[in-house]
Amino acid sequence: MIIILAMVIIFSFTGRVIENNDFFKVTAKINNAFKQILPGEEVLVEVQIQFLGNSEPEDIYVTYTIKDQNETILGLKSETLAVQTRASTINTLYIPTDTKPGLYTLYVDIKYNDFEARANDSFEVVEDQSAKILLHEKIICILLIAVLIFLFYILIALLNDMFNLRKKLQRKFNRLRR
To answer: Structural domain boundaries of the chain?
Structure first.
């Protein structure tokens, strides 16, 4: 019971996990630079596997499947990994040049004996280079705007202080002249 509760707590802190079991914890994350891609490019996915079985290495079958919103399979790739307790792998999957623009989901299915686990992440295929605005570029633009607003605020504060100081000096000078 305690192990199951601990598994539920662990799984609740991982994103993109669809289903796990008592033997696996698996996550899949597509790198932000590959969240928007053009047809003919590759998508890069990082997979984290935690194997809670034996302390001996075991062969785990991993299948990568790309599907569109209609569940049509766009791409399929598989591999066998030897996992003792944890494994991390980075894989690329090719997106065909005739792929239509839209949202796609990459599923990572893990199989070991009769046990299965699944994780996923999504990405977007865009029509042309001008439509390809990467997430990190958006973040950089937002940060740049925030820095400019901050610098503008500091400039206004400095100008206000200089104006107030000038007023004080003018009053003192006027008092001394009298």
So the answer is: 2-128, 134-178
Q: Hey, what amino acid is at 155?
A: L
What pLDDT is recorded for position 19? 55
Listed in sequence order, the residues at least 6 apart from 19 whose beta carbon sits closer than 8 Å to its beta carbon are 116, 117, 118
Handedness of CA 141, 147, 150, 156 (dihedral sign): negative
Longest dimension (CA), the chain: 98
| 27 contacts 110 by C-beta, under 8 angstroms | no
Residue 81 pLDDT greater than 50, yes or no: yes
112 close to 20: Cβ distance less than 8 angstroms: no
CA distance 123 to 43: 8
Place 137 in a pLDDT band, splitting at 50, 70 and 90.
Answer: confident
Q: Is 73 left (phi over 0), alpha (psi -120 to 50) or beta?
A: beta
pTM, entire model: 0.62
In the 8-state DSSP scheme, what is residue 89?
E
CATH code linked to domain 2-128: 2.60.40.150
CA dihedral 97, 99, 105, 111 (to 10 degrees): -60
| Residue 47 one-letter amino acid | V
